[in-house]
Design goal:
The chain is 41% helix and 11% strand. It has 11 helices and 9 strands.
């Protein structure tokens, strides 16, 4: 499957970083310049790494002189470029974090070279916006803070970015460093509906699903329904393989208590009595709902996981 995905890209001629040369309204949009892995690469993992690193080489070739406007990015339709960004994030999920870091660095360097060669090019600003949209926007089903942090770190130190934006990116990098995948999740205490105090690290299970939710949140209710009704996932909870810590981090405890009948009794349902999670020192909860999956040692398996990706992972785990 991996090989079929990656070898399906066709090699297109790379001509001439997109200036506004020519009139965009008279220009027939070009296809996105896909890159084809060298024939000598046969191992699927090697192919994935090559594609992750060189995905953007065509459209960020500094000698490109195709139109850039609101509809075109170096001669390619914006919608096509956006779709390629979505596809690229999936390729990044196939490679090690060291390769992700190099890929982000390469994308930044080549996009920055386009900007330095021709300030009328929209390659740099477009790719920056798409990285944010797909990897950092809380509503993106492809979001990944750990991936995004590599790129944001380059923007935070860039001479092409305004000082206030550099501060913004630097702050995002600091927050993204909290609870990275593979690290031990920050512990905190929580109180249940009867006022009993517990801690995250005190929960014993092979898996712990940390679920930041709010009463009345429609998306939260949809997640609750899946956890209750999916036969494989609900089975993991029923047999104790996975514990669910459903945690409320705001102050309206009356609303939280009124919603208690919705929360399953087998879950750990609690609130943050110290309001420390909202302080951005333990977790970067940018939107509700937010889901973290932890192993038995409370190391992070998935961080602020998109629901679809989480449910797929749990279904696969439960069927082993």
């Amino acid at each position: 499957m991996l090989r079929e995905l990656l070898l399906s890209f066709s090699l297109l001629a790379i001509v001439g970083c997109g200036s506004n040369a020519g009139k965009a309204e008279q220009f027939a949009a070009l296809p996105f310049p896909d890159v084809q892995p060298p024939a000598m690469l046969q191992n699927p993992q090697d192919i994935a790494e090559y594609m992750a690193l060189h995905w953007w080489d065509g459209i960020t070739e500094p000698s490109r002189t195709y139109p850039c406007d609101t509809a075109l990015v170096s001669g390619v339709r914006l919608g096509d470029v956006e779709q390629k960004m979505a596809n690229w994030t999936n390729v990044l999920g196939m490679v090690d974090m060291s390769v992700v870091s190099r890929s982000m660095g390469r994308l930044y360097d080549r996009a920055a070279a386009c900007e330095k060669k021709d300030t009328s090019s929209n390659v740099f600003e477009t790719l920056n916006d798409l990285v944010v949209k797909y990897l950092y926007d809380p509503n993106s089903p492809l979001r990944n803070e750990d991936f995004y942090a590599f790129y944001a770190a380059r923007l935070a130190g860039s001479d092409l970015v305004e000082p206030l934006m550099k501060e913004k990116y630097a702050r995002e990098v600091r927050l993204a460093a909290l609870n990275r995948v593979g690290t031990k999740a920050a512990d905190f205490r929580f109180a249940d509906k009867n006022g009993r105090m517990r801690t995250l690290h005190g929960i014993k299970a092979d898996l712990t699903l940390l679920f930041f939710s709010n009463p009345g949140c429609t998306a939260c209710k949809e997640i609750i329904d899946v956890l209750n009704n999916d036969p494989v996932i609900s089975g993991l909870i029923a047999d104790g393989t996975m514990a669910v810590l459903n945690i409320y981090i705001d102050e309206d405890l009356e609303a939280w208590r009124s919603y208690m009948p919705i929360y399953p009794e087998k879950w750990y349902n609690g609130f943050d009595p110290d309001l420390v999670i909202r302080g951005e020192t333990l977790y970067n909860v940018r939107a509700i709902p937010s889901l973290y999956l932890l192993d038995r040692d409370k190391k992070v398996i998935m961080k602020d996981a998109p629901e679809g990706r989480l449910f797929e992972w749990l279904s696969s785990f439960g069927e082993r």
